[in-house]
Specification:
alpha/beta, Rossmann fold, 9-stranded mixed beta sheet, 6 helices, globular
Length: 231
């Protein structure tokens, strides 16, 4: 794993898979970090997307480190996501890179939309070493406008606690369908009223997107603190 430093974060490179080679990552590690979150991007946005940048910055302000990383298809410049086995192997490699960079900081993993789901699929296949919980920033439960629950079938095989951060206007997750799923799992569901899949809220709600991002960071930070013991 090679390392270079930028003004915003430390830039890392780690091997995603033997076939696909190295991918980039951004490490933000505040002094006296109390936890680290391995944060995967969604299907159509890379690790430098505004949402990823904003969440990483807010977590750092709350003494939570983060490692954002690219899946190989985004490292190549975009296009459709890699086959699922490649995505899952990359998740495992990213957790390994974060474990090395974190030097004992309590470790969590997850991501935005597809990135969170791929993290949970990897954990369902085999526990992610030293990861104490999974954080979903908008779990993609179903295709847009087509409520279903098949994408959650693997979740009972995840052995660590899970945090679902979900907006009530999310077109990829009908909250009334997600709620009973979470109740059957070792999971916490935090619903953000009036937020869509990108956690955008309409002006008429009287809230701003920045306030919603603060809420997400507050809830995630408190939840990680509550699940940092042991491991």
């Amino acid at each position: 794993m090679s390392v270079s430093t930028s003004t915003a974060a430390t830039t890392l490179r780690f091997r995603a898979t033997e076939r696909h080679g190295e991918v980039s990552a951004l490490l933000v590690r505040p002094r006296e970090a109390r936890a680290m979150l391995v944060l995967a991007h969604g299907a159509g946005a890379n690790m430098r997307h505004a949402f990823m940048e904003a969440i990483a910055a807010r977590l750092a302000h709350r003494a939570v480190a983060s490692l954002r990383y690219q899946f190989p298809y985004m490292e190549r410049g975009g296009g459709g996501p890699d086959p699922q086995p490649v995505l899952l192997e990359t998740v495992r490699a990213a957790v390994g890179a974060a474990r090395q960079a974190g030097e004992g900081i309590p470790l969590f993993a997850g991501g935005k939309s597809m990135g969170g789901r791929m993290t949970s699929l990897a954990a369902a296949d085999e526990p992610l070493a030293e990861v104490r919980g999974i954080v979903f920033f908008g779990f993609p439960l179903h295709s847009a406008g087509r409520p279903a629950t098949g994408r959650a079938l693997h979740l009972p095989r995840v052995t660590v606690p899970m945090l679902f951060l979900q907006g009530t206007r999310d077109h990829l997750a009908h909250v009334p369908q997600l709620r009973p799923i979470c109740e059957r799992l070792h999971a916490t569901l935090h619903v953000v009223n009036d937020a869509d899949h990108s956690f955008h809220v309409l002006k008429r709600t009287g809230r701003t997107d920045e306030e919603v991002l603060d809420e997400l960071a507050d809830v995630a930070t408190a939840w990680m603190a509550g699940n940092s013991a042991g491991g």
